[in-house]
Amino acid sequence: RCVGFMQSPPPSHSRPPLTIEDETLRIPHPAAPAPPAAEAERPQLAAAAEQALTQGLTQFRQGQYTNALTQLQQALAGFQRAADAPNTAKVLLVLANAHYRLADYPWAADYGRQCLALAQELCNPSLEQQVLEHLGNCHRHLSDPQTALDYMGRSLQLTKELNDVQSEMRVLNN
Hints:
Blueprint: H1 42-61, H2 65-81, H3 85-101, H4 105-121, H5 125-141, H6 145-162, H7 165-173
Helix pairs in contact: 1-2, 2-3, 3-4, 4-5, 5-6, 6-7
């Protein structure tokens, strides 16, 4: 565990699985992560995951949301199988932000919580700060102001510890 940076508290209760359906957009649901691949397979898996990530981001920018989310899910699975924790965290944040931009706040928060746990495991306080800010915004939209304030407060504290004035201003503006 990281020393000097905050850890997220353990969940106080088990969350039911999210089911999201929209009349105009069917959002693919993530599968359970596959076990890590053999060491020799990992570079190929990571390369394929990087390609899926790039394609997913391109499709998202073009408004092809369902295809984009499918590609991003493939990137996530590939990086998980390649045991590439930093890129897994990156894709989790991309998925969290993609769902947020689609106003799909429950999934945005779910991916955000997964990314937060990984950021803490990786001792990456900058990523942790970004995710805390993201989770604060998600909970604001989920009409959970106390949780939103808790996440934003933790994010603000980290910006000060990191001496990141730009992020501090962004958090204060939220």
